[in-house]
Design goal:
The protein is α/β, with parallel strands linked by helices and 236 residues long. The protein contains seven helices and nine strands; from the N terminus they run βαββαβαβββββαααα. The relative contact order is 0.17.
Length: 236
């Protein structure tokens, strides 16, 4: 099995999923779209994962490659042969590529927070077996405000209604970070706007405290991430 991974910054790699892929003997290729790398044909892969990033979906003027990536994602989802999963920015890109609407939150959602499944999540292949409520790591300034036409609404939180969705039969987007480790949390210090949003809500030193909270909940976060990843791989 081989998975195509689209990346939007050096920090926003598959994280915990790198360990899962190594344990399962799954090959994967990372394409640094933000650095100008061309996205190869999906024909040589069994699935695709679209990672998060510091960009926003409406920043095509600053990041012209976003337009081409959205079109690639749109074609992959419409084709429907390969499962596609998007995390945070990745989920937003899937939503927008398929006709949804993404925009800024009045109050960014950041921290270790619970999310709930919707009635529409019953029997969904990606989230089968997930704990309810599920603890997740959230860190986003934008959110999916309107789902794509015909999309299934799967998860919500008090601050973000569209935490997870499915469009078509084999493409999913999620707002939460299923991949982030403690090291990745601390790495966010490279993005001042994200640290500023965190400290605006939780005060000075909030990044260290969030890393400590992530460490305390690492077992539960890892179990949920592994379950989602295993379900995703089974679809491929």
């Amino acid at each position: 099995m081989r998975i195509l991974v689209l990346q939007h910054s050096p920090l926003d790699h598959p994280g915990l999923m790198r360990r899962y892929m190594a344990e399962d003997g799954i090959a994967w290729d990372a394409i640094d779209v933000y650095a100008g790398q061309n996205i190869p044909s999906l024909n040589s892969y069994d699935a695709m994962v679209v990672m998060g990033g510091p960009q926003q979906t409406d920043q095509e003027a600053a990041h012209p490659w976003l337009a081409g990536e959205k079109e690639y994602i749109r074609r992959a989802v419409l084709d429907g042969r390969k499962p596609v999963m998007g995390v945070c920015l990745g989920g937003q890109l899937i939503a927008e590529a398929m006709g949804g609407r993404v925009g800024a939150l009045e109050r960014p959602e950041i921290g270790i927070l619970d999310i709930e499944t919707t009635n529409g999540a019953a029997g969904d292949a990606l989230f089968t077996g997930i704990s309810v409520p599920a603890k997740t790591l959230q860190w986003h300034l934008y959110a999916i405000l309107d789902l794509p036409p015909g999309a299934a609404h799967l998860m919500r939180s008090p601050a973000c209604e569209n935490q997870a969705f499915r469009v078509g039969e084999r493409a999913w987007g999620m707002q939460f970070h299923m991949e982030m480790s403690v090291d990745m949390v601390l790495g966010v210090e490279a993005y001042p706007e994200y640290v500023a949003a965190l400290e605006a809500q939780h005060g000075a030193g909030a990044l260290t405290r969030l890393a400590e909270e992530t460490a305390r909940n690492a077992g539960e976060l890892d179990r949920s991430s592994r379950l989602i990843f295993d379900n995703f791989v089974s679809l491929a």
